[in-house]
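= Protein in question =
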Amino acid sequence: MAEAGTLTEQESKDQFFRELAELAERMIAAHGKDFSMGALVLAARFIAENRATMSSTPT
């Protein structure tokens, strides 16, 4: 596979999908499917709301 700096856009996207799948599998193993789906939905919501990271103070 190409070095990180020379990945094509498609290779980069494929790598992120693999990482997401691995993360989801670890989350399911540790806390179950409901937690995993909820966490990923919350992450999508933060992205949709243009929030890069969660603030340390609840809003």
Q: What stands out?
A: The CA atoms of residues 33 and 43 lie 15 Å apart.
